[in-house]
Design goal:
Layout lengths: L11 H16 L8 H11 L4 H4 E3 L3 H10 L3 E4 L2 H6 L2 H5 L5 E2 L5 H10 L3 H10 L5 E5 L3 H12 L7 E4 L7 H9 L5 E4 L6 H13 L2
Parallel strand pairs: 2-3, 2-4, 4-5, 5-6
Antiparallel strand pairs: 1-6
Helix pairs in contact: 1-2, 2-11, 7-8, 8-9, 9-10
């Protein structure tokens, strides 16, 4: 017990971010001020400092995303876990709502009939919400691929993409599609990511408005 530090529950998160800041400084990692709250919250969620090197932001990405949120953007996720992790109360202050169509019975039925993934059909449903949508992908690279295909066909162009699917099959390639696109993005390059990372990014954006 000698190594256990007593920290008040209300101070744990603050203490954690202080540790993250000090360790980044010790590593010589410099994160732009605009991006720091997002990248640090991702590190806080994962305890993985590699994100300091792999998180990628398009030009003015953070301000673009925050402006969308302030204007009541819909948030569409590819997992119920990510949806559950997003602070919906804070988001609702700006009129925003969070959606996940992955578990909808009609989505599953249509995906089966067409021989595509539920993520693919979910992205098509999300596109029907209109233009003011932030896509938050933490699990399914096929969601990113579907969005890109809609762009290529001139059907729909997302306003903003958070692309952090985790895994091995098509994950890296799906992220690279958007890294080379004109769509504003926050993307973690490589295999790492996940629903918890996706939710952390959205929360960091909302908390920093």
């Amino acid at each position: 017990m000698d190594n256990i530090e007593f920290v008040l529950p209300s101070e744990i998160e603050k203490k954690s971010f202080e540790i993250i800041t000090k360790e980044l400084e010790a590593m010589g990692k410099v994160i732009p001020d605009e991006q720091a709250p997002i990248t640090k919250r991702v590190i806080h969620t994962s305890a993985d400092f590699e994100y300091a090197d792999t998180m990628c932001y398009s030009k003015n990405a953070v301000n673009s995303a925050k402006n969308l949120i302030k204007n009541g953007a819909h948030i569409v996720t590819d997992t119920n876990m990510a949806m559950a992790g997003i602070n919906k109360k804070r988001l609702s202050v700006y009129g925003g709502q969070v959606h996940c169509f992955m578990s909808d019975e009609d989505v599953a039925d249509e995906a089966k009939k067409r021989g595509v993934t539920r993520a693919c059909v979910s992205m098509e449903r999300a596109a029907a919400l209109g233009e003011n949508v932030i896509f938050v992908i933490g699990n399914a690279p096929t969601a990113l691929i579907s969005l890109y295909e809609m762009m290529e066909k001139g059907i729909y162009t997302p306003k903003f993409v958070v692309g952090v699917p985790v895994g091995f099959v098509n994950v890296v390639a799906a992220k690279e599609l958007f890294l080379q696109s004109e769509v504003p993005y926050i993307i973690n390059r490589g295999r790492k990511g996940g629903s918890n990372i996706a939710a952390a990014i959205v929360n960091a954006l909302v908390y920093s408005i």
